[in-house]
Design a protein that fits this description.
This protein is of the alpha/beta class. It is built from nine helices and seven strands. Strands 1-2-6-7-5-3-4 form a seven-stranded mixed sheet, sandwiched between helices.
C-alpha cells in the first residue's frame, strides 16, 4: 500500500506529544474495496436502526439493555466513530451521553460544531459486559452496520476515536499514538484519528493532545471550505458588461 506524507509531524516517544501541524497521508486506492455492507442493504438510516434493535448477530445482542445504532443527520459532513456503548449509553440507547460524551460535545463546540451537526456511532452497537474491549468476533458481526452507515451518509470526514475504531477502519496501520491528528485519505474517504475522550479523562496528560487533534480537524475543514469556495469562483462565469446606449441608438 503506497503512502505519501505531505507534511512532517513530530511525535513524542510515548505518543502523547502535541503535533506541530496536521499531516495528510494519502493511501493508494484499493480496487474493489469500499463500504458495501456485506449481507445488509438498507434504504435509509431508520431502517438500519430498526434492524440493529432486533440484532442478535453476536452474544452482545442478548446481554444489552438497549442497542445504540447511532444518532445524527443523514446529511452530516462529519461522522464520529467510537468504540462501543458504555453503561449510560446502554441505558439510554444513545451514543456518548456520559462523561466522555460531555467532553466530546465540548471539543465539537471548540471547533464551531455541535452534536446536531455530526453523526455519532460506534464500531459496536451494543455494550460489552463491564465495558471490556471489543472482541474480534463482535467487531466482525457489527461491521456491516458501520459499513452501511458510511455508505448511506457518505461523510466528508470520519473522526476515528481511539485505537479500537482505528484498528477497525484502518486495519494494519500505525498506532493511535502515531496517527492521531493526521489527515488520512484511503479509498476516497478522509479519516482523522484522534484520542478517545474517555482516554483523556482517564489520563489527563492526553487532554492537550486531544485538543490539538480537534484543532487539526478544524484546520482540515477550513481547507476543504476554502477549496470549495475557490472552485465555486472558478465555475461562476464573469458577468457580461452592460451595453452602453449612445446618442444614436
Amino acid at each position: 500500500m503506497a503512502i505519501a506524507a505531505h507534511a512532517a509531524n513530530s511525535t513524542a516517544a510515548d505518543g502523547a506529544a502535541e503535533t506541530s501541524k496536521p499531516v495528510e497521508i494519502q493511501y493508494a486506492a484499493t480496487p474493489g474495496r469500499g463500504y458495501t455492507g456485506r449481507g445488509l442493504d438498507f434504504v435509509d438510516l431508520g431502517a438500519l436502526a430498526r434492524d440493529v434493535h432486533e440484532c442478535r448477530r453476536c452474544p452482545l445482542g442478548f446481554s444489552r439493555t438497549h442497542a445504540v445504532p447511532g444518532v445524527g443527520p443523514s446529511s452530516a459532513r462529519i461522522m464520529v466513530v467510537g468504540e462501543a456503548p458504555g453503561q449510560n449509553e446502554d441505558q439510554q440507547g444513545e451514543p456518548f451521553v456520559g462523561a466522555a460524551g460531555k467532553l466530546l460535545d465540548q471539543l465539537l463546540r471548540g471547533i464551531g460544531l455541535s452534536r446536531s451537526d455530526v453523526f455519532i456511532t460506534n464500531i459496536l452497537k451494543c455494550r460489552p459486559p463491564n465495558n471490556r474491549d471489543p472482541q474480534p468476533a463482535e467487531v466482525q458481526a457489527c461491521s456491516p452496520y458501520l459499513e452501511q452507515q458510511l455508505q448511506l451518509i457518505k461523510p466528508e470526514v470520519v473522526l476515528i476515536l481511539g485505537r479500537h475504531a482505528l484498528a477497525r477502519l484502518l486495519p494494519g496501520q500505525e498506532s493511535i499514538s502515531r496517527l492521531h491528528g493526521h489527515v488520512i485519505v484511503k479509498d476516497a474517504v478522509t479519516y482523522i484519528p484522534v484520542y478517545h475522550p474517555a482516554a483523556a479523562l482517564y489520563n489527563s496528560f492526553l487532554m492537550g493532545p486531544l485538543q490539538q487533534d480537534f484543532k487539526a480537524v478544524k484546520a482540515h475543514l477550513d481547507r476543504v471550505e476554502e477549496r470549495r469556495r475557490a472552485a465555486t469562483l472558478v465555475a461562476t462565469p464573469a458577468p457580461k458588461p452592460e451595453e452602453q446606449l449612445t446618442l444614436f441608438g
